[in-house]
Specification:
8-stranded mixed sheet, mainly beta, single chain, about 10% helix, Barwin-like endoglucanases, about 45% strand, 8 strands
């Protein structure tokens, strides 16, 4: 049996940009992606602390050391610049493997979105 488990989480980052006229996705500073074990094209869930929105999109690499968190396309309507969001990635694991799996949890500076 396989189950979905938390694989990656970037906890409480600030939205720095929103671009409605883009094809869709979330652009994330590549340093944050690496720390959270996320890859380009991976499906993620976005949870908006400010308004309660929950939605899915996919990851695009952003420039390193910029703290960029940009919601693109239709997702741009679900956030406002400076909203605080949580980015969550999941994995499908064998039930026994899931019992010992440890997710990658990242807690960046909420003001700059950079790692300490």
């Amino acid at each position: 049996m396989y189950i979905n488990v938390l694989k990656s989480k970037i906890h409480r980052v600030r939205v720095t940009q929103a671009d409605l006229n883009y094809i869709g996705s979330i652009t994330i500073d590549e340093d944050l992606m690496d720390a959270a074990n996320l890859i380009e094209g991976e499906r993620v869930q976005i949870v908006n602390i400010n308004n309660g929105e929950r939605f899915e999109t996919y990851v695009i690499k952003g420039e390193r050391q910029t703290g960029m968190i940009c919601l693109n396309g239709p997702a741009a309507r679900k956030v406002a610049i400076n909203d605080i969001i949580i980015i969550i990635g999941y994995a499908m694991l064998d039930f026994e493997e899931a019992k010992t799996f440890k997710p990658s949890l990242v807690f960046p500076n909420e003001q700059t979105n950079l790692l300490s």
